[in-house]
């Protein structure tokens, strides 16, 4: 049984890109002969995982796969460029050779200057010793000193010329290397081929399907939101990076959030012992409380530095490209369009002065893409063009989406707080009164008309113990709040005409008994 010397092409036809790897499918039509034969297919990426290699013959042809394996070969690059290399690569090689030669010449000149310096020192020492002993060879001493100084000047000038040329070469070589990095790819030194052993009962064509996993490929979701009046267009893209050693040309691309590398073993159960003890007399007399910050948000992944993982809501999601795509194996980001939809998106202007003095435009719309929107960055585009970049959280199909489109530069909010504390003598209760004043201003251009409603949100504490009471002074608030929710968020809808100013006042009190400590 012999192996065919000329390999059979085995192109990539479908790719399932996972969070940190890719599942590649290849197909080819083989012209089989009767009996057992070994075929050489490829080339394929040398990074393919051997233990995931799977091959099968489809169709009605009576044949079966006996063995399949990947054979890798290493072909080192020659030290000098060949005639097939580009002019840019040959230019880089010429510059590197010239830099190496100039470096050696500079080393020789420095060694010669060092030797001439020692020679001049020996000559001066000889002149000093001879003059001290009465010798008078002024002519010879002058000639030798002039010759040494002349050679040092010549060598020093040559060294300066060499260093200047090295500086110019470094700039030219850096520019050439950057141009080569952008325009060319280093040919792979490690290549792989598939050796397939098949047994056919009769001669004829058979279709081969081969699949395997490969590293150095990943994807992340990205979005582009275009706001045109009250209409919003959301484009869902997949940003794909791959450096698997080969290009993906016109492949069926599938994006999956499955994490096949994670372990599936359940966590171990450990003991959790609870111990009860009696409270001391001091603990019975007092109630220790403290103020803490609570963020009201849905449970999600913690933010991480660098490239985050794919947030799929705990369920594996599969997205597919509607048309064949091509992704070069250059390791750069390539965007692939997945879906687009347009919907009505009413917007409002929101401000939370305790967190930020900016008034932000918030757009609300429903997810009409037909699939879940995974968490990822979103490019924001308004009438004036690109306005910034935001973040889109995980959103189920049909769920509501809130997207901030940046702040308004023509609004200003200033926040002032006051606090007073007093104790009642008879009840021994401590009463803390806080007053929050918000000054809103709208700076409008000449000729601008129309009122603008700004939703202003402030918060008041929420007590979890009966010994501490929180009371909102509705009569002292100006104007009266439009809504107060269970989380202590107070809301006003403030109307601002062009060039106007408004002041919002919030007054609430915190009352605690004498047993309470920590306030």
Give an account of the 3D structure.
- This protein has 519 residues and is an alpha+beta fold.
- The protein folds into 4 domains: 12-77 and 187-214; 87-183, Helix Hairpins; 217-258 and 311-407, no CATH class; 411-517, no CATH class.
- It has 3 helices and 27 strands.
- It has helices spanning 87-132, 138-183, 281-285, and strands at 12-17, 22-32, 35-44, 54-58, 63-74, 190-200, 204-214, 217-228, 231-242, 248-256, 287-288, 318-320, 325-327, 334-344, 347-351, 360-366, 376-382, 385-392, 400-407, 411-423, 430-442, 452-459, 468-472, 483-484, 489-496, 501-512, 516-517.
- The strands form 6 sheets. Strands 1, 2, 4, 7, 10, 12 and 13 form a 7-stranded mixed sheet that branches. The chain has a 6-stranded mixed sheet with strand order 19-16-15-22-25-24, with no helix packed on it.
- A hairpin with a 2-residue loop joins strand 8 (217-228) and strand 9 (231-242).
- It starts with 11 loop residues before the first strand and ends with a strand.
Gist of the model:
The chain has helices at residues 87-132, 138-183, 281-285, and strands at 12-17, 22-32, 35-44, 54-58, 63-74, 190-200, 204-214, 217-228, 231-242, 248-256, 287-288, 318-320, 325-327, 334-344, 347-351, 360-366, 376-382, 385-392, 400-407, 411-423, 430-442, 452-459, 468-472, 483-484, 489-496, 501-512, 516-517.
């Amino acid at each position: 049984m012999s192996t065919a010397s000329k390999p059979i092409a085995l192109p990539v036809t479908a790719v399932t890109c996972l969070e940190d790897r890719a599942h590649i499918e290849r197909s080819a039509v083989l012209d089989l002969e009767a009996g057992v034969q070994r075929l050489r297919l490829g080339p394929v990426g040398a990074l393919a995982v051997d233990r995931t290699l799977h091959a099968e013959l489809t169709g009605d042809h009576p044949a079966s796969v006996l063995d399949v394996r990947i054979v890798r070969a290493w072909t080192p690059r020659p030290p000098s460029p060949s005639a097939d290399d580009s002019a840019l690569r040959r230019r880089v090689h010429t510059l590197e050779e010239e830099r190496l030669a100039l470096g050696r010449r500079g080393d020789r000149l420095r060694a010669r200057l060092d030797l001439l310096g020692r020679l001049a020192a020996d000559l001066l020492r000889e002149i000093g010793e001879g003059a001290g002993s009465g010798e008078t060879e002024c002519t010879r001493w002058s000639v030798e000193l002039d010759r040494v100084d002349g050679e040092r000047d010549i060598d020093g000038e040559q060294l300066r010329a060499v260093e200047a040329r090295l500086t110019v070469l470094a700039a030219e070589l850096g520019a050439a290397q950057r141009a080569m990095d952008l325009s060319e790819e280093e040919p792979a030194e490690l290549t792989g081929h598939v050796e397939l052993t098949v047994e056919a009962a009769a001669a004829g064509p058979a279709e081969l399907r081969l699949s395997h996993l490969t590293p150095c490929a990943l994807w992340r979701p990205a979005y582009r939101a275009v706001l045109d009046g009250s209409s919003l267009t959301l484009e869902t893209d997949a940003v794909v990076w791959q450096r698997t050693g080969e290009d993906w040309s016109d492949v069926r691309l599938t994006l999956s959030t499955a994490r096949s590398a994670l372990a599936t073993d359940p966590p171990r159960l450990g003991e959790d012992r609870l111990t009860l003890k009696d409270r001391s007399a001091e603990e019975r007399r007092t109630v220790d409380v403290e103020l803490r910050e609570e963020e009201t948000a849905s449970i999600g992944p913690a933010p991480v530095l660098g490239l985050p993982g794919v947030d799929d809501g705990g369920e594996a999601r599969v997205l597919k490209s509607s048309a064949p795509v091509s992704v070069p194996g250059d390791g750069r980001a390539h965007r692939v369009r997945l879906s687009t939809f347009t919907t009505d998106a009413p917007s409002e202007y929101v401000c939370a002065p305790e967190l930020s003095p900016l008034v932000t435009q918030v757009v609300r719309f429903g997810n009409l893409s037909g699939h879940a929107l995974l968490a990822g960055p979103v490019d924001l585009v308004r009438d004036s063009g690109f306005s910034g970049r935001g973040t889109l959280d995980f959103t189920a199909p049909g769920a509501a989406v809130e997207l901030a489109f940046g702040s308004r530069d023509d609004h200003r909010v200033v926040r002032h707080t006051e606090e007073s504390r007093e104790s009642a003598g008879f009840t021994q209760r401590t009463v803390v009164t806080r007053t929050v004043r918000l000054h809103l201003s709208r700076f409008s251009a000449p000729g601008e008309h129309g009122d603008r409603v700004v939703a202003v949100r402030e918060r008041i504490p929420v007590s979890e113990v009966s010994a501490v009471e929180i009371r909102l002074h509705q009569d002292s608030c100006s104007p009266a709040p439009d809504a107060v929710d269970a989380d202590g968020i107070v809301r006003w809808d403030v109307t601002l005409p062009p060039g106007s100013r408004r002041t919002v006042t919030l007054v609430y009190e915190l009352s605690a008994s004498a047993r309470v400590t920590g306030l």
